[in-house]
Amino acid sequence: MPRLTQNETHPVRFTLNGRPVSARVQPRMLLTDVLRHEIGATGTHVGCEHGVCGACTVQIDGEPVRACLMLAQQAEGCEVRTVEGLATDDALTSLQEAFREHFALQCGFCTAGILMTLDALFLRQPDADEGAIREALSGHLCRCTGYAPIVQAALAARNRIKGGPIDA
Amino acid sequence: MKDTVTERFVGRSVARVEDPALLSGHGRYIDDLPVSPGTLALAFVRSPHGHAEIRSVETAEAARAPGVVAIITGKDFAARTRSMTVGVKADVECWPMAVDRVRYVGEPVVMVVATDRYLAEDAADLVAVDYAPLGAVVDPVAALSDDAPVLHPSLGGNLINERRFRYGDPEAAFEAAPHRIGIDITYPRSACTPIETYGVIASYDPGEDAYDVTANFQGPFSIHAVVARSLQVPGNRLRLRTPPDSGGSFGIKQGVFPYMILAGIAARIAGAPVKWIEDRLEHLSASVSATNRQTRIEAAVATDGRITALDWDQIEDCGAHLRAPEPATLYRMHGNMTGAYDIPNMAIRNRVVLTNKTPTGLNRGFGGPQIYFALERLMDTIARRLGLDRLEVIRRNLIPAEAFPYRTTSGALYDSGDYAKVLDRAVAEGGLDALYARRNKARAAGRRYGIGFACVVEPSVSNMGYITTVLTPEERAKAGPKNGAQATATISIDPLGSVTVKVASVPQGQGHRTVLAQVVADKFGLPMDAVRVLADVDTMRDAWSIASGNYASRFAPAVAGATEIAAERLRDKLAKVAATQLNIPPDDVIFEAGRIGAAGNPDNNLSFARVAATAHWSPGTLPDGVDQTMRETVYWTPPELEAPTADDGVNSSLCHGFIFDFCGIEIDPETAEPKIDRYVTMHDCGRILHPAMVDGQVRGGFAQAVGAAFLEEYAYGPDGSFRSGTLADYLLPTMVEVPEPVILHHETVSPFTPLGAKGVGEGNCMSTPVCIANAVADALAPEGEAPDIVLPVTAAKLAPSIFGDEPAPKDPVPETKADATTGGRKLTGEGRAMVQASRTDVWKMLLDPATLDAIIPGSHGVQKVGETRFKADVTLGVGPVRGRYKADIDLSDLDPPNAVTLSGQAVGALGTGGGQGRITLTDTDDGTEIAYRYEAEIGGKVASVGGRLLDGAAKVVIGEFFRALARHCGGGASSGALARLRGLVDRVIKGGRS
Hints:
CATH class of the largest domain in chain B: Alpha Beta
Shape of chain B: globular
Number of strands of chain A: 5
Low-confidence stretches of chain A: none
Mean pLDDT of chain B: 92
Radius of gyration of chain B: 32 Å
Distance between the termini of chain B: 84 Å
Largest sheet of chain B: 8 strands, antiparallel
CATH superfamily of the largest domain in chain B: Aldehyde oxidase/xanthine dehydrogenase, molybdopterin binding domain
CATH architecture of the largest domain in chain A: Roll
Number of strands of chain B: 36
CATH class of the largest domain in chain A: Alpha Beta
CATH superfamily of the largest domain in chain A: Beta-grasp domain
Structural class of chain A: alpha+beta
Helix content of chain B: 25-40%
CATH topology of the largest domain in chain A: Ubiquitin-like (UB roll)
Strand content of chain B: 25-35%
Radius of gyration of chain A: 16 Å
Helix content of chain A: 25-40%
Shape of chain A: elongated
Mean pLDDT of chain A: 94
Structural class of chain B: alpha+beta
Strand content of chain A: 5-15%
Oligomer: heterodimer
Order of helices and strands of chain A: EEHEEEHHHH
Largest sheet of chain A: 5 strands, mixed
C-alpha cells in the first residue's frame, strides 16, 4: 500500500461488481462512505458503524467483510462485490427470489448485508446445512422479521442452488 | 353493478411489490436520496452530563476549522424558533436542543454545519462547552421526592401532570370484596431500535420564508403542526416529505421531529441545504425510547377469582422533556385498562414525571407492554393467592362473546371478539396439555420449568383525541373537542387506463404498497401490476391529515379501508360509464380480468382501459350525472372515535384485536439462563388481508418482545450517565436468541372498518414480555407468593434465586457511594511507587508545572494558574477511543512535604473524566515511597461506549501518572496495584504522549 498522508486525498482503485472504479479520498474515509457517497452505490447500508449489525456487509475478494470497519484505502486493488452485483440483467438470483418467496425481508435495510453473507457462504459451501447457515447469519441483526423466514429462505435458496427441491 | 368479482388477491400471500428493488440494492432510503449540490453536513455537540448548567460555549476554534460554514448554539437557535408545544398544561419550555441547561446525556448543545460529515464532526470536537454539573435524578419515584434535583425550575418539581380517574364505584367494590390483591411493577426502558437511524435533509427558501424538510419520519402528521409552530411558519411554509423507503421504525421515527426543526434552522443560518444522518450512539442515547413506569395495581377479587374492581397507580417516566405526543404512552391504553376482562369498576391515578433521561416517544406496543405487564402479572398473582388455576381465573373474567360491541368501564368500545373461544382454540391447537406434561416431566427430574399465560386486547387505529384525556374535562371543554382518525386515499386512472393509488401511510417495511395493490386490483378486476401504489408523503401535494402516518397499527383497518372506499366510488363511476357503452343497467356491470362487461353475457364487454379513458379523451360522451374526474380522494374517519366524555370515558382506539399467548420456559441449572422451550401465540386481528404479512408482523413483534424480555435495557447511572451506547452494550436479539413461535389465528371481523380488518402490528410487544415473565415466575416458584420479576430477565438477575446470594468477597474492595452531583461511575483503587528521590524533591516535582507536564499521561502542556491550581491539555484514551481533554488540577490539604490531595476534572469532546487522589510520601532507605488512594470517574460519551472498559482504563491512566513520576525521579521500582498494572499499561497506553 502506498504511503498515505493524513488530511490529503489519495486515489483508491478497486473493482466494484466487476467494473473498475476509482475515487480520491482521505485515508480516514470508510469504505461504506466511498461506496455510498463517492461512487453512488447506495445498496450497501450503514446501521451501526461499529461492526455489530452486519447491514454493511460486502464481499472483498469473495470474503464477507463489514464495510463500516474498513477504510476505503484498504480496498485498493481488491474485488469488491455488493448487493447491486448479485442480480444480472434485472433478474433476481435464486437467493433473492427465495427471500421474496419466503417474506424474508420487511424494511429491507439489513437485507443487503444478509444476502452478501449468504452468497459468500453458498459460494464456499453450496451444501451448507442449517447449522452453518444460522452460524453465518448470527452476525446480522434484523429488527423486522424475527429471523425465521430468513432461515427458511436461505434453506430454500441452498436447495435451489444445489438443484434440489425449492422448499426446504 | 354486481359484486360477482371473486377476490383474487386479498386474503392471499402474494409476493410483495416492494421486494425486487429492496433485494437488489435499489431501495431509496433517506441517505440514498439525491441532494442539491452544495448540501452541507450537520453534526451535533451533545451533552456528556445528565444534568448541568451551560456556563459558556466557546466556538471560535471550531469556527476556524476546515470546511465549517456555521456553528449554532442553543441561544442562536432559540432566537429563531418557538419552544415546541407541550401536551399538558404546565409552565415549561421544550426545546429540541439545550439552551441554558442540559438535562440528559446526548442532548444537542451545539450544531456544526460543514462541507462534509467528517469535517463537521472534527469541528464539533473543537467546540468547548463549560458545564456546571447539577444533581441528577433517573428514577421516577425518586424524582417525586422533595429533595430530588428539579429539571425544570419553572415547574417547581418533576411532576408535570397528575390526574385521577374513577369509573363505576371502585371504593364500594373494594369494600365489598373478600380479597384485595395487589402488586408493584417496575417496567424498564427499552426501544425497538430500527437498523436505519434518523435522517433529515432540510433547506430554507428566504424568498417565501419556507422550509422544505425530508425526513424518515413515520407520522403522526399532527407533529407537522408542532414543527411548523416551532419554526414560526404557517403549515404551508413547511413542506414535509418522506423518502420512498424507510429502514424500520416501530414507532421510533416519530421522534425524529425535533431534528426537523434543528436542521431547518441550521439550513437557514448556513444559507444552504443541510443533511444529517444520525449515528448509532446518537440513536441509542438521544433518539427516543419507550417510557419506563412504576405501577401499583390492586384488584378487588371474589373468592372464585372474579375481579370486581381495579385500582391503578402509575408513575410514568417521560425523560427530560415532555415531547409531543407524550404523555400519550400513558393514555393510549386508557380505554383498555381492564384488558380482556369484564371489570365494571376502576380507579386510576396517573402521574407523569420528568427525569434526566432521553425524552420518550412512540415505540411498538406504545403503552401496552407497561399496562399488560402489570395486569397479567396481577392475574398470575391472584391465582396464586387464591390457590386457583391461572387459566381458570382468566376464563372467569373474560368479556363474554355476547357482550360485543362491549363498552369498557373507562369508555372503550370493543368492536368484536369471542375471547373464550379463541382461548379454547389456542389451548387445544397450541398443545397446552402436552406442555403441562413436559413441564411436569422436567420438574420431576428436578429442573426449573415454568408455564406462563398472557391475555391481551390489542388496540389499533388510535383516536386522535385520546391524549386529551390528560386534560381535565374543564380544560378539554375550553380547548375544544378532539377526536377521530382520518385516513386518506387517492386513486386516479390515467389516459392509458392504468391505476395509481396514493396514500399517506409512510410504511417502514410493512408492505403497504402490496396490500393496496391487492385491494384495488380486486375491486377493478385488474392484475396487480396494473395498479401502482405510492405511500410516501409530500405535505404540499398529497391528501393528508393529522392522523396520517404509520403508527397504532392503523394501516389495515384505516388506510386500506379508505382505499377500498375510494376504489368503490371510482368503480361505481366506471360502471355507469360502461353501462351506457354496453347498453346495460349499471347494476349488471362486472369488472373481471381487465375488462368491464355485462354479467351473464361474456361477449358484451370493453377493456377496462377503454372505459376508463373515456373521461380523459371524450368527456363530452359521458352519461348524465357522471363527471369526468378519474380521481377519487377519500378522507375517512370512523364515527365511533368520539371525543372523551365529560366523565373521562374515552374510546381510545377503533379496533380491538385479541391475543392469547402461552409459553414454556426452562431455567438452565448451571447458568441460570432462561430459555424459551415453546411459545404459542394466538391472534384474532379480524379479517386477514395478507396472511404472510400478518405472520411477519407477529414474528417481528415477538422477536422484539424477546429482546425486551431477556436482553434490552437503556441503562443509566445514578448521575444520568448513559451506559448502553453501542449495540455491544444494548443487546438486540440475534437469530440465536429468537425461537420460532407457533402462530395461530382466529378471524372475527371488525364491524367498524371497511375491510373488517383490525391492526396486528403491536400485539406481541404487549403480550410476550409478560407471558415470559409469568413463565419465569412459575419456574422459580411453582407455588406460593409470586417472585418479583423485573425485565430484562437475565441470568444475572435469576442467579440469586437459583444459587442463593453470592457470598461476600474475602478481600472486599471498599465501596464508594455514587455521588450524583459530579459525574459517572466511581472507580477506586490504591497503589504504591518507590522513587529514587528525596521526599522534598518529590514534593517540589508535584508542584512544578514542567514536571506535571512530563508525567501527566498524554499531556500537551501544563499551566500554573494559581499557587495550587493548574490547567492542563491532555489526550486520554480508552482503547481506541481517544480524545483531547482540558483538565483542571487542584492541590489541596497540603502537608509539605508529607501529603497532598490532587484533584482533577477533565472535559473533552468524548465526555468527562475526573479523579481525586491522596498522596502520601514516606522516607525509605533509598528514596521515597509514594502511596496513593484514588477515586476516579468517567462520564459522557466514553462511559456510553466504553463502560465495559472503564475500571481498567481508570487504573491504567492513574497508574501511568505515578509510573511516570517514578521514572521522572529516576526510580521505577513499584509495588502493589501499580506493578500488576504495568503490563496492562504497556499494552493499552501506547504513545499516550504526543
